[in-house]
Each structure stands twice: as structure tokens, then as C-alpha cells.
Amino acid sequence: MESEWTRFGKTRRWVIGMVVAALIPVLAGLTLVATSRATCGTQTTEEPCPAPILGPSGQAVEDRFYFVHQPLRGDGSITARVNGMTGRIKEPPPPGAGAGPPPVPGLVPWAKAGLMVKDGVRQGARYAAIMVTAEHGVRMQHDFTEDVAGSAGGYPRWLRLTRTGDTLTGHESADGEQWTEVGRAYLGGLPDTVEIGLFAASPGALTMAGGGPESRFSEATAVFDQVSPLQGEWKTDDIGVQMEPDGVTPHHPGALSRSGGTFTVTGTGDIAPSTDQQPIERTLIGVFLGLIAVIVVAVAFGTADRRRLVPKAVVIGTVAFLSGVIPAAVVVPIALRMLPSNGIHPLPVGLLTHLQVIVGTGLLYAAVAVLSLGIGALFKRAAVGIVAAVVVAFVPYALALAGLGEWPLAVTPAAGFAIQQSAREYAHVEGFYIAVTGYFPLAPWAGFAVLCAYAALGLGLALVMERRRR
């Protein structure tokens, strides 16, 4: 082991190669951070983009819906029948058609309407809701990220939401007589007085355009009756509504139409985690070029002397880990501090996720280095080994980005890039969860495990070949 450390340290081209592997992500990342700018505004004004709305756990959320509510002090419940839901969707305009045709009748799959208890009307405040959706049946959701499925739905559908202390319980019924519990939500620290009522929301209709995913206007209209309790003053709030350039007129406002005990509620937007922000790993764009430098050094290290491969793997893995984790530890904190002042707000995630991205970058370097070492020892020739390692590490990723499916990122060494993913996929949020938008088919550590398996296989085959040569 000591002799391999000494040999590596005395070979200047290998040391320089690993320094280059570390410098590339730093220079590329800091250049990106320093030069990136984003503004938001109207046709006449531009201003810095606002920070995302944060939910109870500090995650970025969408909190846009129409709320018909009244205060609830202490324990209590609300019951209502949802008689039906209709909606409108803005279709993509034909090429060169400008704004395109007016909205057409229809509902997006996650259009929703139901009952809600919310800690006031502030965006991002805690809540629990039971709802009927357009295509996903009855759901019990709370605090944006939590979702429990009920029945397949259908109309009419009775819903009930009950508060007992900090616990909210959702029930559903097909006839208003036989009730089935859908789920429970514990909202610790909920104040004595909350808002309780009816709501409607409709996420944007998603399409994949040339520049990436696009969200188009949609709205949902639900008809409620058999509301209990019916007495009391009902207030309305268009939570999160945006204004037209005049600053006064709501853009795509919601609405309430009431006739006796029948409430017709129209809303747009969503109540869910946000997937709009850029994940912080996007600042580590230099990792790909840095990995090429790692591959070159690791293959050369493996072909220089094909003996003592295990000590070599320890040496190259350790050096590569440091060459990856150090630049990530420099770029990520600087990006988190500087990008918001440039109008760019990275996707908020917890400390453990930031550590996963930083340490995971080092582990990615290390695993690719060990895999490349094994490939170099197998092929004997450095040039052939370098080409083979680059193909194995990067071509599957390129195939996935080219739209040939997600399987290359699940069954090849390229699955290891998932260790850098900070964005989370949510089953109750419609989105394009594909490689081009930064999502991998495997969880971060599962994807990294696939890469490690290939690294172990490559090193193991090289060891077998070494023993046969003796």
C-alpha cells in the first residue's frame, strides 16, 4: 500500500491530472454562478424573481387555490357532497399563432376539489385536506408532501374532514350513510383557531416543448351541496393569485357562485411541492469534464503495473474522492449564497441532501476511478482503456438524454450519477421526471450502488486476469 502511495505521489502527470479533475468543477461552477442572471416581470417591467413559497418543512411549494372558508375554534368538522367537477384547459398554440386558441373544456389529471383545514390563509401555512381528483380518485393530503389514496372516486362523493386537537381525519362516502376513513394527518402545534371550508384547484397542463417542460393554464369548477355546518359567515380567498400588469386585476381569478346550500367553486393552481426551482447540482456542471480527467489518470495508473490492484484501488479511490468532494464543498455553498442575489433561487433542500450532493460527488469520482482502474488493467493499453471507460460511464447517460428511455440510467454504470440528485419525485405531482429535467429512475443511493457493483465487477475481473498471468 505504501509503495503505491509513493509511486502515485512521485508521478507528476497523475498528480496534475487529479488536480485538474478538481479544478474543472470549481472554475466551471463559479463561472456559472457569477454569470447567471434571471429576472421576472411583465411586458413593461423586469424585476428580480421572488423567492419560492416555503412549506412547513422549509421545502419549496405551490400554494395557489380558491378557498371558501370560515373560522373553526377548537375541535369540529365539515361535511359536503361533491356533485361533479368540470374544467377548462389552454391548448398549445399552433406554430406562429401567438397566444393560441381560447381554453377548451377538460380537466388535468390532478385537478382537485374538496374540504380543507388550514392555519390561516398565508401561502405555505400548514393544512390538511380531503379531496376528489379528476383521475386519481379520493385523496387525503397534508402539508404539501404527504398523500394517501382513497377510493377510485366518482360522483356524487361525500367528504368529511374532522379536527380533534392536532389530528385531522378524512372520511369519504358514496351515499352519505356509510363512511370510510381515508387517512389521518397530525399537524403538531396547530393553533386553536383555524380556517375550515371548501376549495378548488387545478395544476397547469404540462407539455414538453423545444425549450423544456411548459405549463399551460387550466382551471377546475366543483359543485358542492349538503354542506354542514351551513351557518356562519363564509369568506373567500383566492390564495396566491397573481395580478395583471396594472397591479389590481387578478390574473385567472377563482370564483364562488352560491345558490342557497349549493356552492360552485372555481379555482386554478396547485397545493403541492414545487418542482420549478433549479436543483443545486446544476452548478456542478464541470463534473463531467472532471471525470474524464479522473478516468485518464485511473486507467494510466492501472496499466502502468497490473500488480497489486487492490492497493491501487484504495489509492486511486481515495485521491479521486478528495478531487470530487473538495470542489463540490466549495461550489455548492458559494452558489447557495450568490445565486439568490442574481434572481435565481435553487431548490430548497435540507442539510442532509446538501451533504448527499457534496459527498456524493466525491463518491462518484471514487467509484468511476476504481471502475476505470479495473478497465485499464483488463485492456492493458491505456488508450483503449480510456475510450472504454468513457463509453461505459457517459454513453448510457447520453442515450437517456437523447430520449431513448430511462433504462440506461438504471442498469449501467451511469446510474451512479443519481447520487447527485437533490430533487425529489412526488407521486401526487404531475411532471416530466426524466433525465433531461434532472431526475433518475433510481433513488440516489440505489443508483450509486449500481455503479459500485460495476466497479467491483471490473476490479474483480482484473484480479482474476492478473492471477491467470502469474
Which secondary structure elements does this structure contain, and how are they paired or packed?
Blueprint: H1 2-10, H2 12-35, E1 39-41, E2 46-48, E3 53-54, E4 60-63, E5 65-73, E6 76-89, E7 104-105, E8 112-118, E9 127-133, E10 138-142, E11 146-149, E12 157-164, E13 167-173, E14 180-186, E15 193-201, E16 205-209, E17 212-216, E18 218-228, E19 235-239, E20 242-243, E21 250-251, E22 255-259, E23 262-267, E24 271-273, H3 287-304, H4 309-338, H5 351-379, H6 382-401, H7 408-411, H8 444-469
Antiparallel strand pairs: 1-2, 3-4, 4-24, 5-15, 5-19, 6-7, 6-12, 6-18, 8-9, 8-15, 9-10, 10-11, 12-13, 13-14, 16-17, 18-23, 20-21, 22-23
Helix pairs in contact: 2-3, 2-4, 3-4, 3-5, 3-6, 4-5, 5-6, 5-8
The count of strands amounts to 24
- Tell the overall outline: elongated
The biggest sheet, with number of strands, parallel, antiparallel or mixed sense and barrel status, is:
8 strands, antiparallel
Note the beta-strand portion.
25-35%
Number of helices: 8
N-to-C CA distance:
20 Å
Which regions contain 5 or more consecutive residues with pLDDT less than 50? none
The Rg value, from CA coordinates, equals 27 Å
Please give the share of residues in helix. Answer: 25-40%
**SS-derived structural category:** alpha+beta
Averaged pLDDT: 91
What's the structural domain tally? 2
Transmembrane segments: 283-301, 313-335, 355-375, 382-404, 442-464
Keywords: Membrane, Transmembrane, Transmembrane helix
Protein name: DUF1349 domain-containing protein
